[in-house]
């Protein structure tokens, strides 16, 4: 049995957050790009580049 920390991870192309391997992605892990259905829907419109500053620091009031 594998530990969760030993599972492979990827970065979501939409939100940029890391997500880990799931059993349901076993056959097509190489093609998985998004962490959720929501990111899959919106990710095709907006690809996020990795941010150098956190989002809270980037907002100007």
Q: Low-confidence spans: pLDDT under 50, at least 5 residues?
A: none
Largest beta sheet: what is the strand line-up? Answer: 1-2
Our measurement of the CA-to-CA distance between the termini, rounded to an integer number of angstroms, reads: 50 Å
Helical percentage? 10-25%
Number of helices: 2
How large a portion of the residues is in β-strands, by DSSP E? 5-15%
Average of pLDDT: 80
Main sheet specs: 2 strands, antiparallel
What is Rg?
14 Å
Apparent shape: flat
- H/E element sequence: EEHH
Number of strands: 2
Structural class assignment: alpha+beta
Strand-helix topology:
Elements: E1 9-11, E2 18-20, H1 37-43, H2 55-58
Describe the structure.
With 61 residues, the protein is an alpha+beta fold. The protein has a domain at 8-32. Helix content is 18%, strand content 10%. It has 2 helices and 2 strands, in the order ββαα. It has helices at residues 37-43, 55-58, and strands spanning 9-11, 18-20. The protein has a two-stranded antiparallel sheet. The longest helix has 7 residues, at 37-43. The protein is flat and about 45 Å long. The model has no long low-confidence stretch (mean pLDDT 80).
């Amino acid at each position: 049995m594998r530990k969760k920390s030993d599972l492979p991870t990827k970065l979501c192309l939409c939100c940029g957050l890391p997500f880990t391997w799931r059993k349901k992605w076993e056959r097509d892990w190489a093609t998985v790009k998004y962490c959720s259905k929501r990111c899959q829907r919106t990710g095709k419109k907006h690809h996020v580049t990795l941010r150098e500053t956190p989002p809270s620091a980037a907002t100007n009031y």
